[in-house]
């Protein structure tokens, strides 16, 4: 399929924005009222899907600074525009396997912490593990079907842009169904596993408390127990959350 060239906005490139801090683990879930316009790179080799994403994002008030169709163009666009977040299809030319994922990882290696929301047609838990391997967060892995649920997709996009880790619920379900032995999560209680699954989906402490009908202090206590049982020493809270989710993926 012929590719459209890299589309960029007219005029000089926007100045580099200061990096935003990660989401506070106890802060509220970002809703529509809390959303801000984002500068976004879109990477998908399917022209119709790419143009559809560009239109969807523009209608929600965002600026798509580049729309590209292959991995090298994605890396170049991320380094040039330093977007608030990039939306990337896993499968891109030439082999249509995982070039998009590899390009996203390459871009993050050259621009550490660059937020990436990766879209995939199928559940492949190893992709999520590869994205999380650097431990810096600001990554998401969603099935393409999730884009049709516009509010869920846009919410995930903003969470990733704010530094959170977001995994598609179907990825989490597959991980729960297919954990291998030895199980590093064996010491966790059923409630702690439930909390960790919600953390993997990118929910904040506040959202977890509402979902499980627990007090904020009870959620903090359970999460502290998860960190302790996984052997994660006191550190920046967001960093420990990423490491906990990574342990969950590797279980």
Integer average pLDDT = 80
Q: Which CATH architecture of the largest domain is right?
A: 3-Layer(aba) Sandwich
Low-confidence stretches: 1-31
Globally, the shape reads globular
Q: Find the CATH superfamily of the largest domain.
A: Response regulator
Number of domains: 2
Structural class: alpha/beta
CATH C-level label of the largest domain: Alpha Beta
Rg value: 18 Å
Distance between the termini: 39 Å
Percent of residues in helices comes to: 40-55%
CATH topology name of the largest domain, in short, is: Rossmann fold
Number of strands: 7
How is the largest sheet built, in terms of strand order?
1-3-2-4-5-6-7
The total of helices stands at 10
SSE order, one letter for each helix or strand: EEHEHEHEHEHEHHHHH
The proportion of residues in beta strands is 5-15%
Reported for the largest beta sheet, the result is: 7 strands, mixed
Summarize the structure.
By secondary structure, this protein is an alpha/beta fold. It is built from ten helices and seven strands. It has helices at 47-59, 71-81, 99-110, 125-132, 150-161, 169-177, 190-200, 205-212, 216-229, 237-250, and strands at residues 7-8, 39-43, 63-68, 85-89, 116-120, 139-143, 165-167.
